[in-house]
Amino acid sequence: MASMCEDRAMGVFAEDGRHRVAVLVRHGLLPMELGIVHRVFGQAETAGGERLYEVLTCAPEPGELRTDADFTVNVRYGPQALAEADTVVVPASQQDYGDGDGCLSEEMARAMAAIRPGTRVASICTGSFVLAAAGLLEGRRATTHWRSAEQFRRLFPAVELDADVLYTDEGRVLTAAGVASGIDLCLHMIRCDHGAAVANEVARRTVVPPHREGGQAQFIQRPVPEPRLSSTAAARAWALEHLDRPVTLRELAACESMSVRTFTRRFREEVGVSPLQWLTRQRVERARQLLEETELPVDRVAADAGFGTAASLRQHLQAAVGVSPSTYRSTFRGAGSHAGMAGAGAGR
pTM value? Predict the structure, then answer.
């Protein structure tokens, strides 16, 4: 699977250095999904407090749009905002549900045609229906809300739908499964554009986990422990404090006074992945943070993140983001400065 983190040449910036994000909405829009894009991208800043993104809301025709709630939204911009955007995000609409024929309305077709070739395009929830109807997902892997998966497959058989994941990244085309995973996808794009440090700061301000892997399951059987059933949160907290050394399943289970078998089952039910998959992802994130924020040698980064050797770190980082530790460090050194980002994009 291609990854935006591998394709940094897309970094086109406005004259003031900010990356333009256009949110394309329609009648029946879900206000929460619109707010997610503005809130998450709007909080991304340089170390000096300069905003990294300019976010605009646009519609096929400017004016008042109905939402799925009991209020309307007055949209100021039309398709011209799409023609000038570096990233276009299409949230869901109430119009996406029902017995649609998989075709765009004339006005939506004109709006999608205004998007410049090479622009990064993303959808949230059933906004994926728009991308698919516009032909952007054909032959690609994509996701949508699990409740709409059957309808999506019927309408767009040429798309490789994976309704079991939070989001997909196919290079310049990305899709998110639903409302909350829209936050994950926006953070993922910020992480790819400006590095883990910037994305993590946005996550802290938004009070959400800094990173949920796109391949994590949409539906988690027990997101909140049932009464009188132990959580695995203490084991996760303990593991994060001991990433620099080998961590075994037996030790994690002991933190919760469970058998390994019970702990493994409970962990997957609560988190959506196995303990070892989660542990590897946390180590990758720790390595990325150290590569971005410190001058530690790669061998030391590997040790502190719990990979043991530089070769192991290289293998896992390559699998996660498609680059070596040295390339990752040089790319994100000084991330958050526009000059540094433009140089990184041009040099790849």
Answer: 0.73
